[in-house]
Design a protein that fits this description.
3 helices; Pnp Oxidase, Chain A; binds flavin mononucleotide; globular
């Protein structure tokens, strides 16, 4: 165990990376109808009644102005066979949706095929969070499947390994 008070950005990232998460692609649509999507593991649940979730986005992201303006976003929770989808949406670019199968959900926001689960949200609040913006959405429609989720931790993609309640496999 190491204790550090004077940590740098890399050390902080490494420690944050010890918290393993699922992987989502948050999609939305610009005012001119252009679809956008970004890979995000900052997604978390906030409230059950009302049903609220959040994710946060770096202010420097190319697509940030779209998410600021948009009334809606969709949380596409990726399945374990969608590493390529995660990688595609983790890079800036115009052609992110090329050869990605989608349908249009509420408000015309893209819903990615083959996900583990999907939450279609209406944006209800935006908060400042240092160099990120925190977007809170009210869930209006959900899609679920029995696909296994893709996980991310320590900078790597992973598969889930279920354990019994006693901690054994
Ligand atoms: C596993 C993973 C999780 C990520 N999580 C976030 C996140 O929560 N928020 C964020 O702003 N960027 C996150 N990123 C980085 C963005 O996906 C990346 O900066 C992307 O290029 C943003 O798209 P844009 O430049 O088109 O806006 C993550 C990347 C990966 C690979």
């Amino acid at each position: 165990m190491t204790t550090t008070k004077d940590f740098d950005g890399r050390e902080l990232r490494n420690v944050l990376g010890r918290f393993y998460t699922g992987v989502t692609v948050v999609t939305s649509v610009a005012r001119d109808g252009t679809a956008c999507g970004v890979t995000a593991n900052s997604f978390t649940s906030v409230s059950l009644e009302p049903p609220l979730v959040l994710w946060n986005q770096a202010l420097t992201s190319q697509s940030h102005p779209v998410y600021c303006e948009a009334d809606r976003f969709v949380i596409n929770i990726l399945a374990e066979d969608q590493v390529d989808v995660s990688q595609r949406f983790a890079r800036p670019g115009e052609d992110k949706f090329n050869s990605i199968a989608t349908s249009r959900g509420l408000g015309g926001v893209p819903v990615i095929d083959g996900c583990c689960a999907v939450l279609e949200c209406r944006k209800v609040a935006t908060h400042e969070g240092g160099d990120h913006a925190i977007f809170i959405g009210q869930v209006e429609h959900i899609i679920s499947s029995d696909r296994s989720p893709l996980l991310f931790g320590d900078g790597k993609y992973m598969k889930a390994l279920p354990l019994e309640p006693n901690g054994q496999r």
